[in-house]
Amino acid sequence: MTRPLDRNARLPQLREMDEEAGEFWVENPFTMPKEGLNISAYERNRLFLNTDGSDFVDASFASRADIDSDSRAVIGADFSGDGAPDLLVSSVGGGPLRLFENRFPSRARAQIELVGTKSNRMAIGARLTFEVGGQRIVRDRFPHNPGMGQGPVETVVGLGDVGKIDTLTVRWPNGETQHFKDVPVGPQVTIVEGEAGFKTAQ
């Protein structure tokens, strides 16, 4: 939906509405909050928990995320500073932002920060390949952009109970590739494009 140039514009309905079928017309939805109206359909949120890498369990009620606020954007990021991704949720029609803190037991996770030098500074478009305990995990580095928000550009990967990443391969946006051995999990690891090693946060 595009905001009109004239925010007070009133667009007449194109034909008669069939109210019995649930049809309605709003002359300008962007004036609704000022008029005390709300377009929320009070749809309940859903939160699904991945249990074994392939199956999901509906954890909406147990997590208390099943609010009927007709939410439109969710951003996953570590807001509490404990290394685990939390969820920030915004809803249509106004209302407060809601933060759902991740209270699951701490597990091993890789937190990789990339700094581009030849490529773009945030290394958007880079591909990271993690080789851990015989498994290969691939992540592309892009900001998460839900409908009404934008998440941080970060790479966080859950790794269960492993103690280190055997090999981390970074393919930078310009096509160049670097390999790193025995990368630690837990603290944030910073990799600068073109530099041989990596830095670990204290």
Write the layout of secondary structure elements.
Elements: E1 48-50, E2 56-58, H1 60-63, E3 71-77, E4 86-91, E5 98-100, E6 108-115, E7 127-132, E8 135-140, E9 155-160, E10 164-171, E11 177-184, E12 188-192, E13 199-200
Parallel strand pairs: 6-12
Antiparallel strand pairs: 1-2, 3-4, 4-5, 6-9, 7-8, 7-10, 10-11, 12-13
User: Largest beta sheet: what is the strand line-up?
Assistant: 9-6-12-13
Mind describing the biggest β-sheet?
4 strands, mixed
Structural class: mainly beta
- What best-fitting shape do the alpha-carbon axes yield? elongated
Mean pLDDT: 84
User: Roughly what percent helix?
Assistant: under 10%
Provide a brief overview of the structure:
By secondary structure, the protein is mainly β. 2% of the residues lie in helices and 35% in strands.
Descriptive notes:
This protein is mainly beta. It has two domains: 48-100, no CATH class; 108-200, Sandwich (Immunoglobulin-like), CATH 2.60.40. The chain is 2% helix and 35% strand. It contains one helix and 13 strands. The strands form four sheets. It has a four-stranded mixed beta sheet, with no helix packed on it. A four-stranded antiparallel beta sheet has the order 8-7-10-11, with no helix packed on it. Strand 4 (86-91) and strand 5 form a beta hairpin. The longest helix is centred in the first third of the chain and has 4 residues, at 60-63. It starts with 47 loop residues before the first strand and ends with a strand.
